[in-house]
Amino acid sequence: MQYTAEFLTKIYRDLYSVRVFEEKQVELYALGKVPGHIHSGIGEEGSCTGVMATRKEGDFVKISHRPVGAGLLAGTPLETMFAELMGRVGGNALGLGGVLHMTSLEKGMVGFSGTLGCDAPVAVGAGLTIQMNGTDNVSYVFYGDGTSNRGPVHEAMNLAAIWKLPVLFVCNNNQYAISTPTSFSSPVPNPGADRAAGYGMPSRVADGTDPLSVYEAAQELVDYIRAGNGPAVLECKMCRMRGHFEGDQQKYRDLSVVEQWKDQDCVAKMEKYLIDNEVLTAEEIAAIRGEVAAKMDAAIALAEQSPEPTPEDLYRNLYAE
Ligand SMILES: Cc1ncc(C[n+]2csc(CCOP(=O)(O)OP(=O)(O)O)c2C)c(N)n1
After folding, report:
1. Residue 316 within a domain
2. 144 lines ligand 1 (CB under 6 A)
3. How far, in Å, is the centroid of ligand 1 from the Cα of 148?
4. 1-4 LR contacts (CB < 8 Å, sep 24+)
5. Predicted confidence (pLDDT) at residue 321 exceeds the cutoff of 90
6. Cα angle vertex 120, ends 114, 125, to 5°?
7. Closest residue (by CA) to atom 8 of ligand 1?
8. How far is the CA of 117 from the centre of ligand 1 (A)?
9. Which residue of 47, 48, 116 sits with most ligand 1 atoms within 8 Å of its CB, as the best mutation to test the pocket?
10. Atom of ligand 1 at shortest distance to CA of 182?
11. CATH of the domain at 302
12. Does residue 91 lie within any of the structural domains?
């Protein structure tokens, strides 16, 4: 596929922004500024970057617990995300939801349930809304390889397929569900893509460490969905580079395998591609990195100025006005 320099630069900026968000999460958590715990998505940014590049106005998105930085590609303001992460009232849920409940309804980001798998039926509901409104929008739902085994995911796929709803199921296969390798929980090698046939849906497997490979596969499926053909499944393969949570000792896996995946780092590979193809120079890449880092720091500073919620805030937003 031929790309413009503008498109490739946008992809890189998005990819690197999600990376820095993920790094900042780890940093803020280590400083004790995050109530609860986080799930770092470092190394997994290629998937959401490639998929979200196919998104347009009016689409719905359900991100997952990893990488949460995907929310910024859906248009959630950075300072809102950092405020929610740090439990401040400036967050989308007044800081009461925390990192697992990033939402931005006005941007089509329809929340995230801590009960894994239960997002898929909600995404199908969003797909039904689109169908009833008669637009060519898409409802995207991200989930992990472990989550792919849950009943609600299969019920959602079945309903979406029967009713030909515009849903793109995106399975991020990072090889593990906490300590359980995919091979222990799935009878097929591609727990996302191989399940699609059972519901008559098309599927693609993409290299989740390459946002362009993801984009090409996603675009093909999204074109199919926007044309009114019904749902599809995209599986992105990658490695979870850090523990399931910060402080996870990872006794259950051979960390030398993780070391090998470092050669496949999505950010480093994209930078090499841009330089080799004379899209950007090393200096231009450094300038983008600087801009992104400055934006993140400014958003964190703003979020930190936001106060913590009060007990009275518990009673706000209970009912729609
Ligand atoms: C229904 C349900 N069961 C268990 C959990 C606890 N849990 C949180 S993350 C996680 C692992 C999920 O694995 P996967 O879907 O592969 O995503 P990953 O964490 O690897 O990104 C589990 C079991 C949960 N949140 N919800």
Report:
1. no
2. yes
3. 10
4. 1/212, 1/216, 3/212
5. no
6. 115
7. 116
8. 9
9. 116
10. 16
11. 3.40.50.970
12. yes
Cβ 267 vs Cβ 19: under 8 Å? yes
The alpha carbon of 114 and the centre of ligand 1 are apart by a number of angstroms equal to 9
pTM: 0.97
Q: What is the pLDDT of residues 166-200, one digit of tens each?
A: 999 999 999 999 999 999 999 999 999 999 999 99
Residue 214 maps to a domain: yes
Question: Ligand 1: does its nearest atom lie under 6 Å from the Cβ of 182?
Answer: no
Please state, in angstroms and rounded to a whole number, the distance separating the CA atoms of residues 64 and 117. Answer: 10
Domain that holds residue 137: 5-308
At 165, the pLDDT band (50, 70, 90 cuts) reads: very high
208 CB within 6 A, ligand 1: no
How many domains does the chain contain in total?
A: 1
Neighbours of 95 (CB within 10 A): 22
Cβ of residue 267 lying under 6 Å from some atom of ligand 1: no
What confidence tens digit (pLDDT) does each residue in 201-259 have?
Answer: 999 999 999 999 999 999 999 999 999 999 999 999 999 999 999 999 999 999 998 99
> Which 8-state DSSP code applies to residue 309?
P
pLDDT of residue 320: 78
Q: Measured from the CA of 116, which atom of ligand 1 is nearest?
A: 26
In a domain, 120, yes or no: yes
The predicted-structure confidence for 271-318, as pLDDT tens digits, reads as follows 999 999 999 999 999 999 999 999 999 999 999 999 999 999 999 888
Q: Kindly state the helix (H) or strand (E) to which residue 214 belongs, with its residue range.
A: helix 211-224
Residue 110: C-alpha distances to residues 39, 85, 162 (Å): 20, 17, 23
